[in-house]
DNA sequence: CGCTGTTTTGAGCGTCCTCAAGAGTAGTGG
DNA sequence: CCACTACTCTTGAGGACGCTCAAAACAGCG
């Protein structure tokens, strides 16, 4: 388990059942990371109708699949997801890992059907946001509209960063960038920046980074030899974060 | 020059000066590819205020740069662009090539500043769409709002496709996918599907595909030897499009 | 405890990169 | 019109990085 520093951040242990429980964004402790960033408390009240229900997704299950009809976006409440796209000939590529407060399903807007699979990597729960409702409400709330656009744009910027990684970096640099990104996001959620538990396999990391699982494993081992990491299976301790940073900054040297 | 089949599609030859000429989307022959897809002619009339001016960008010049304040989106009217992101240590990655009817600048919404460079690869002209105006109008026109969301989502889906390419494909497959994508987009704009002129260097293609320019050149040569392409510098003729298709479908075999 | 899936590690190989030279093309100015 | 320069593209030879194939160690779970 990743150790929560802020005790009010939800952990997997409080994953709810799949009842359509009314959950107000106003009282959600993820509101500073999630869709309603920037909304005033009074706006938030009126937003209650938007997130009408939760859905829990057990580890290994799909939240949605490539080809599914698109109707809703999903905000991760607890747990951890991966998204992946597949090529015509069966290979697949992990396109991202999503944690609490992050949005899933944006790919579906383009043609009213999903273009990737979303799979829970641990027992998870999401808030279901009907896209029609979001469109309607964002016509009324300028702040919500703007925030939604920002989230989509941020996803585009993120994807461009991944392209840079896949197109230009070597194995060590890719893994370093991946780990730094993970720790930063965990830190923003109140977890330790130096100790983390990977929710995904070496193969999934490899798929995301454009590497084979053996290469990922070897690179972890090398980081351990160099004293940069302590690796015990999926339990990772970052001993020298600056070494990771140097890898991706001085990469050309 | 790519040979227009539909004579009403604009070519570079009619690139305008930089006067703030009033250009109505209603009378633009790109309207079926561009932002106002799906709007009725009467809606289009009311949209006139949105695209208030054009801007022409000579070959080699920047439309915007990483770090520039974000204020507007740009719809390519004529010409051809590349976008690229740079890493901390100076390497850069081409993240896309944009042609007539495609939107530039979506990356800027995330933090009110641009996160990539946009460079004209030939003398080009763009329609300037003030983002504030677009937000405002899309609150009024549901169709416009939805179309805009679709365009952002499509960009995300496209980026995921590029990740798949960069993460899983080998050099020949990457170049085949690139060429098929280009010819399809040119075809949608009324150009030949078999004959095209590349607007970018081997190095830029390589950067986009995560390859070195020598590898791109070698792969072009191999395609020529195999009778799949005819390559005369940047003048490309696709002799066997199905062979390209097979490369990316049967890739694993 | 045995089964299964994940991870580690080794050895050999292939694809693409690096370095380098030369040919082709475009733009500039005499 | 032709040299001159700068840039782009092609092609070759050698090497490096990551992949493939394979086996064994390890962890999780019924």
From TrEMBL, chains A, B:
Pfam families: cNMP_binding (PF00027), HTH_Crp_2 (PF13545). Keywords: DNA-binding, Transcription, Transcription regulation. Residues 35-105 form the Cyclic nucleotide-binding domain. The keyword Transmembrane does not apply. Gene3D superfamilies: Jelly Rolls, Winged helix-like DNA-binding domain superfamily/Winged helix DNA-binding domain. SMART domains: cNMP, HTH_CRP. The keyword Secreted does not apply. SUPFAM superfamilies: cAMP-binding domain-like, Winged helix' DNA-binding domain. Residues 169-242 form the HTH crp-type domain. PANTHER family: CRP FAMILY TRANSCRIPTIONAL REGULATORY PROTEIN, FUMARATE AND NITRATE REDUCTION REGULATORY PROTEIN. This is Fumarate/nitrate reduction transcriptional regulator Fnr. It comes from Pelomonas baiyunensis. The lineage of its organism: Bacteria, Pseudomonadati, Pseudomonadota, Betaproteobacteria, Burkholderiales. The gene is fnr.
């Amino acid at each position: 388990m990743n150790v929560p520093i802020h005790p009010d951040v939800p952990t997997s242990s409080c994953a709810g059942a799949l009842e359509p429980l009314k959950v107000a964004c106003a009282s959600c402790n993820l509101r500073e990371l999630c869709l309603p960033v920037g909304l005033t408390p009074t706006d938030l009240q009126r937003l209650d109708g938007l997130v009408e229900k939760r859905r829990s997704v057990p580890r290994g299950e799909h939240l949605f699949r490539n080809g599914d009809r698109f109707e809703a976006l999903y905000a991760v409440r607890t747990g951890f997801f991966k998204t992946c796209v597949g090529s015509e000939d069966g290979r697949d590529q992990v396109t991202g890992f999503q944690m609490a407060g992050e949005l899933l399903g944006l790919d579906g807007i383009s043609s009213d059907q999903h273009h990737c699979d979303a799979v829970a990597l641990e027992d998870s729960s999401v808030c279901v946001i009907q896209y029609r409702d979001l469109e309607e409400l964002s016509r009324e709330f300028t702040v919500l509209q703007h925030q939604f656009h920002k989230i989509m744009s941020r996803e585009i910027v993120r994807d461009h960063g991944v392209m840079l990684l896949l197109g230009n970096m070597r194995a060590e640099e890719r893994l370093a960038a991946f780990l730094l990104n993970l720790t930063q996001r965990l830190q923003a959620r109140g977890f330790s920046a130096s100790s983390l538990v990977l929710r995904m396999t070496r193969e999934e990391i490899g798929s995301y980074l454009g590497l084979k699982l053996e290469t990922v494993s070897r690179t972890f081992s090398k980081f351990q030899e160099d004293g940069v990491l302590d690796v015990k299976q999926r339990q990772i301790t970052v001993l020298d974060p600056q070494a990771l940073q140097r890898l991706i900054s001085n990469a050309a040297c």
